[in-house]
Hints:
Layout: H1 12-15, H2 22-47, H3 50-78, H4 89-125, E1 129-133, E2 139-142, H5 144-150, H6 168-175, E3 184-187, E4 195-203, E5 207-214, H7 216-251, H8 261-289, E6 297-299, H9 301-315, E7 322-327, E8 331-335, H10 337-353, E9 362-369, E10 373-380, H11 402-408, H12 414-423, E11 428-434, E12 438-446, E13 450-452
Parallel strand pairs: 7-9
Antiparallel strand pairs: 1-2, 1-5, 3-4, 4-5, 6-8, 8-13, 9-10, 10-12, 11-12
Amino acid sequence: MYEPYPTPQVKPEQQKYRYSSLWEYAKYDIKVLFFILLITGLIGLGINHLILCLSIGFTIFISFHFYALYVVNQWISHRSYDAPPNLNGIWGALLFNIYRAQRQERIVQADMVGLIARAQESLFALGEAVVLTDELHQIEWWNAAAERLLNINQQDKGRNILGILRQPSFVDYFHNMEQYPDGVKLNSSVYEDHHVQIKLTRFGMESRLLVAYDVTRVHNLEQMRKDFVDNISHELRTPLTVLSGYLETFTDQDDFNPRWKRAFDQMQSQTRRMNALVNDLLLLSRLENDRQVAKNQIVDMPSLMTQLFDDAQAYNTDYGHMLNLDIDSHCDLIGSDTELASAFGNLITNAIKYTPRGGSGAITIGWHDDQENGYFTVQDNGIGIDLKHLPRLTERFYRVDSARSRHTGGTGLGLAIVKHVLMQHNAHLEIESEANKGSCFKAIFPKDRLCQSETP
């Protein structure tokens, strides 16, 4: 516990000028010098050796100052924690100010030590593991939770963190932190069937702060959700196929009663919608399960864009929009052609569906690059989206207008699929939109996903 240092014992005559100006401090020394020179001058006049006596007086004055300098040096070198010696004049003021500055610094240091101690106590009380590494990636400090979750012990101090957490996914995350904004999830090396989420923060030159916490329960719940969606989607496919087949059989009969036509048309429409929903759920499940699969095919972008444009024209038959294709890049993409085609197709289909019919709709599909990034764009002049909805558009089942989505037959999963596909290609989606003026969806791919096309 911090105890204040004793205040220096000073003479009353010193106390009155120590907080005055430097000139006030120097007055005492000038008076002493004048007094010594006066005495030695009178003696010199008496013995007829004025210059000699004045020199001796000045030497005595300088000797006093050398002695004071010796006292100051001794105090600074050996006893600076004690109260300063009582000296008059400038040297006394210098000692007092040095001591006061040291005392204030010690108070600040003591406060900092107390604050650091409280911070360490707080970190020790955390359930999350906290580890500090230096510029050489060697472990400097850790809390109790790090011993429990990461199996770090006293023998590991000074060891390289990569020598302890050696899983390839963590090593890749450690060297490419910017590619893992949410950190990385690892299998626990301490407890079987446990999972730990790790997040790194860089500070200083190359020092890092590691925070890890147990996400086993969240992982299990997420896995249960995925298994449920996957299983229920597979189970629904068979009855939906049967229903769809019987509905088509009934409506194709020559003696089919026209009174039932509207009801059967609605049943067929809802069956197709449920089939689309099941297919999208299965696709999302596959994307989540195959996220570690290498996406290293060379996708011929002019060919893919032409195919997407042809599909869009076929889909556009009932809408009558003006479709445009704009390709000004000679770069191909490195990735999965089927996944990219699915993502791009979703963006195009959405633009067609949410642009009102009437002959004034215009949709432009584009592929561009600027030597740094590749851009797949879909721009329309449709109904647009209010700004408040943009941050949540890629969430599953999020709908700007539920009634409109039901009317267009949307599943609410299209943009979620787009987001997952782009994430697995190190890309991201940017959305620019304004209500009643149209939207622009832009998929941005990094330079390392581009390759020069072999065809001119």
